[in-house]
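Q: Joint fold for the lines below.
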Amino acid sequence: MNDKKWIVLGLAVFLVLFLSPFLYNVLIKGAKAAPMPEVVLTEKAKAAKQCVMPTEFMRANHMQLLDEWRLKVVRSGLRDFTNAEGKTFNMSLSNTCLDCHSNKADFCDRCHNYASVAPYCWDCHIQNPQGETK
Amino acid sequence: MNKFYLSSLLAVFVLALIAWAGGPALPWLFGIVLPYAAVILFVVGVIRKVMGWSRSAVPFAIPTTGGQQRSMPWINQNKIDNPSTKFGVFIRMALEILTFRSLFRNTRIKMTEEGRFSYNLELFLWIGALAFHYAFLATLVRHLRFFLEPVPLCIKAIETIDSFFRFEISYDAIQFGLPGVYISGIVLFAAVSYLFLRRLLISKVRYISLAQDYFPLFLIMGIAFTGILMRYFTKVEIAAIKDLTMSLVTFKALAFNVPQGIGPLFYIHLILVCTLLAYFPFSKLMHMGGIFLSPTRNMTANTREVRHVNPWNYPVKVHTYEAYENEFREKMIEAGLPVDKMPDESTAEEEKE
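A: Joint structure:
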């Protein structure tokens, strides 16, 4: 058949496109492993042992929590957040979150870059309110 | 209740339940074996299907002639709907594949009040199909962020465009939209829901709808729904999921170490995607490849200029009249029958000598 070579060509193009994640990672990147990045905890964060909520919750839901905090602070003027253990925190990214996690590059950015997330926190907030060096 | 959509819906629910129960218990099976098996089935199935098509004959030239064929120089030809050149066919195919031109010409037959048939343009199928296919494409492309590390700029650009409409719902009871809302996911879910409701609510379409029509719709609806759920509502740990997907595409997953912290919702999403992939080559979804090989669209409408030889034609043993007369000429002359060609007198004499 005259058309067979075109069909084979089209099929090959499609399969290369479909398998491109495999081909790119194996042939170009040499099957280099890309594991989940380790976040670095500061001494202060280590000493606190737990964030405002349990670690599993924070890993998946921190953006939701921060959004709720923003709503409460900006719209309702509330500042106190009490967690399940009854501990109360000041709802503030700069004064609470970044107090312990003062290492944005090694804490926030690692996973955000890995998952290609560009949070707009830093459109308004400065990254290092304490003025500490990393 | 219609058994066709009910059985399909049930099948998707059962799949989701299996993944919900089995995923966290057997992560290596649902997170590693299943995706590899689905991809292998998809690739092998698609190759087999398309190569089978490539071997099948095109016995007749059957391009649909949706316009004036090329004839006299003073008659305007419709060069796209009745293409007589390869370039015209290319334009026709490109418009078909990229803009679903055949669906655009969908009509609905109605009886008017005077009792006459009227054919009205019915564009909602076309709009729904366009929204569905392009939203699916955008969703598929931006999922590449889970398979590439570092994520290339073009994928990030697509994500930025996709999350262009930044809308957030913030109340004490509901929080929505902080991971930026991808419009493609919302459109995909809305479009697939419309395509399902169309089958369900238009009685004539329901009459011709079978389980194999509803099943992919429910699968895709489930995929979109779990995706939206994971992104905006019951969050999953995205870094752990990318850990898994990266290990899949780098074949590091063959060590069968599934990262901790992947929620059951992800396994539901994954089993539905794997089912879609594995089911794809054996289903109507192969119209993805079939659209390229549709003889009614991809053949040149030049049947008056070029003879289309049916490949099924086999060499028939023929005995022409000429050969027949050559064989029996002398006997025919003897019997006084008329012959086309009298034997040449001079050559006959030469033969005597």
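Q: Anything notable?
A: Chain A touches chain B through 43 residues (CB under 8 Å). Chain A has two domains: 1-32, 43-124.
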